[in-house]
Design goal:
single chain, mainly alpha, 8 helices, elongated
Amino acid sequence: MSDGAGLLTAAAAIAGAAAGPFWSGPLWSGPLWSVIELADLALMFASAFLAATLLPVVSEAVLAGFSRLDGADLVLLVVVATIGNTLGSVVNWALGRWFVHWRDRKWFPIKGKSLDHASRVFNKWGLPSLLLAWTPFLGDPLTFVAGVLRAPFWPFLIYVAIGKGARYILVAGAAAEWL
């Protein structure tokens, strides 16, 4: 586990322990929002957003930690995590579209053969392959390659959001039930 992932795991545990009484407060039972609750949601969003980039962040641990708190609104947590993670993938897609102009440069992050291979895989499975954008080691490069290959934005967004949302539903449900 990288230092970044460990840091976020610890932050989720600390936030969960420190925010315990606040989670049964207004956000989870009514329309008022406290600063602590907004900070918790911001941490959930940020960890999910960063997890969709090439940074070693584990948003599932943050979601699992918050899911275990009494009175936590699992639907809101899943929605915030899904939006953050999907927007992080949109950044990868945009970088892919932008970086393709420099594909012949030495510093380009994906070499010609790898880009050609990813292009063949993406072309073989098409847009539905983006349902796997949540998977470790495959998801980030897949969303980058989708941008390089000029996948249309709206279908990209829909497939990625469905896959990432389904993953977060499973994580939150499992954490709330079994942890």
